[in-house]
Write a structure and sequence with these properties.
heterodimer; A: 115 residues; mainly beta; seven-stranded mixed sheet; 0% helix; B: 112 residues; six-stranded mixed sheet; five-stranded antiparallel sheet; 11 strands
């Protein structure tokens, strides 16, 4: 069964460093998302992406964040200068349809630790 | 405003018993989805119920949706130790577009 994959599974970085989190969505899906979950807290929406552009972003998704779909398969989240509070589990999700049948499938997550 | 709040926050039952978790939300929705998360792991999609549906089944899972009360419930029948996990509801709200808004989750522990 097709699934969303993410790499790396765990990333440790120093504060101020740039990180790139990678995702490969399900191949026939058209809508892509990044969410994050700080330890012990809710899953929070970061950004949605469709037709090669951002369709919506949250307040969390400030100028330090960017997303890209560099080719037909990868979807990346870049954090330019990491802060301690960026430590969280980052989930990529994808869906084929919007609207009432918007069944989003999540990857296993990347645990980002900022020291 | 909060969207998708589950109760109880934690639930502990014996293997074989049924587990019921509830979710309330505040705005109109396209659909409501339930996910499972094992400790520190990814989110596994369990079931999606559309706003025009009232009940849906998948194996040992039964989900109901009451749009007049803006609430949903997830019933797991004949629970197993392997069902131990956190369960989240997530709403795709018309007001917010296609993003999912998650609740805080219910931690379910099934004792064998």
């Amino acid at each position: 069964e097709p699934e969303v994959t993410q790499t790396p599974s765990h990333q440790v970085t120093q504060m101020g460093q740039e990180v790139i989190l990678r995702c490969v969505p399900i191949s026939n899906h058209l809508y892509f998302y990044w969410y994050r979950q700080i330890l012990g807290q809710k899953v929070e929406f970061l950004v949605s992406f469709y037709n090669n552009e951002i369709s919506e972003k949250s307040e969390i998704f400030d100028d330090q964040f960017s997303v890209e779909r560099p080719d037909g398969s990868n979807f990346t989240l870049k954090i330019r200068s990491t802060k301690l509070e960026d430590s969280a589990m980052y989930f990529c999700a994808s869906t084929r349809l919007a609207g009432v049948n918007n069944e989003q499938f999540f990857g296993p997550g990347t645990r980002l630790t900022v020291l | 405003s909060q969207q998708g709040e589950e109760d109880p926050q934690a639930l502990s039952i014996q293997e074989g018993e049924n587990a019921t978790m509830n979710c309330s939300y505040k705005t109109s929705i396209n659909n409501l989805q339930w996910y499972r998360q094992n400790s520190g792991r990814g989110l596994v999609h369990l079931i999606l119920i559309r706003s025009n549906e009232r009940e849906k089944h998948s194996g040992r899972l039964r989900v109901t949706l009451d749009t007049s009360k803006k609430s949903s419930s997830l019933l797991i029948t004949a629970s197993r130790a392997a069902d131990t996990a956190s369960y989240f509801c997530a709403t795709d709200a018309r007001e917010y577009g296609n993003k999912l808004v998650f609740g805080a989750g219910t931690i379910l522990r099934v004792k064998s």
